[in-house]
Amino acid sequence: MRAIVYTSTGDSSVLSLVEKDTPTPGPGEVLVRVTVSGVNPTDWKARSAGRDMPFPEVTPNQDGAGVVEAIGEGVEGLRSGDRVWVFGAAHGRPTGTAQDYTVVPESRAIRLPDGVGFDVAASLGVPAVTAHRALTVHEFGPQRLAPGALKGRVVLVAGGTGAVGHAAVQLATWAGATVIATVSTEEKAQLARRAGAQHVLRYTAPDLAEQIKTLAPRGVDHVVEVSIANNATLDIDVLAHHGSIAYYADDGGESFTVPIIPSFAKNARIQGVLLYTVGETAWAVAAEDITGALEDGALPVGAEAGLPLTWFTLEQTADAHDAVEQSTTGKVLIDVSGDNR
C-alpha cells in the first residue's frame, strides 16, 4: 500500500511517499481503507521543526474517512464494509490517515449515517470534536448537544470560518442557539452566514463590544474562542452573568490576562479545551452527538455550506500541509482513493 511518512521533523519536504505492507488490526482495532484524509493545523505542527519524533517513522494526519476492511478480536460495534469517519488516528500512534489503509482503535472509527459523503466525514474529526467540547464545557446548561439543547442561549464564535469555528457555528445552530460569529472579511462573513450564523460581525470593528451588546442585551451566554490572548477583555465585557468561555487555540499569543473584578462579578467560567486530553468519555459523547447532527443533515461542507474544500492527491500531501500552514480558507482534504472529487 502507499503511505506518506517522515523520519525526522521539519518543513513539508521531510514527507515522502513509500510502499508498505498493509497492516493487520490487533485486539480492539479496525483496519480502515482510507478514501479521504483530512488535514488540520495539528498535523503540520506535529511534523514541524523543533518537535520530538514520537516514533522512528510517522504517517501524519489525525482525521479521515473510509470503509472498514477488517476487524480485530473483540470488536463488536463495527463490521467489514461499514463506512466510517476516523479521528485521532495518529494520537499516540505512528500511523495516521495519509495512507491507503490505517489501523485505529474501534472507538476512533465512527459509523457514518447513510447518505453522508466522505468529504463531510473527513472534515469532522479534530474540528467537530473540539467544537462539541467547546460548546459543552459550561457548568450551567446541558452537557450534551441535540436539537433544542441550546435554545434561548446566545453563543459567540470567534473566528467563525476556521474549521473549528465553522463546526461550532453549525453545531450550536443545530442545538438551537442564537449564534454570533466574528470574522475578518466580507468574504468570510458570507461563509459564516452560510454555515448558519444569524449574526456576523467584523472582529476588527472598534465598536465590536457595543455591536455584540446590541445583539445580546443581557450578554452572551457562551464564547467559543480561538484567540483568547487578544479577546479576553472583550469576552468578559460582553459575557452574561454565569457565562462561560471555552478557548481551544493560542492564536495571537501564548498568554492572556483577564479583568478580575468584571469576571468574578459575573461568576464567569473560563476553560481550556484540548481534544487530545479531554478523555475517552468526552470523545464518545461527542461522537454520539455529532452522529445525531449528521443524521439531521446539520454538518454539510463545501462553499455553499460555509466551508470551501481544497483537494489534493496523496502524492501532494506536502502541498496539503503547506496549504493548511498558510491558513487556506476552508477545509483541506486529500483524495486518497482518487474517487472523491
From TrEMBL:
Residues 10-334 form the Enoyl reductase (ER) domain. InterPro entries: ADH-like_C (IPR013149), ADH-like_N (IPR013154), ER (IPR020843), GroES-like_sf (IPR011032), NAD(P)-bd_dom_sf (IPR036291), Zinc-ADH_QOR/CCCR (IPR051603). It holds the Pfam family ADH_zinc_N. It comes from the Bacteria. Keywords: NADP. PANTHER family: QUINONE OXIDOREDUCTASE (PTHR44154). This is NADPH:quinone reductase. The lineage of its organism: Bacteria, Bacillati, Actinomycetota, Actinomycetes, Micrococcales.
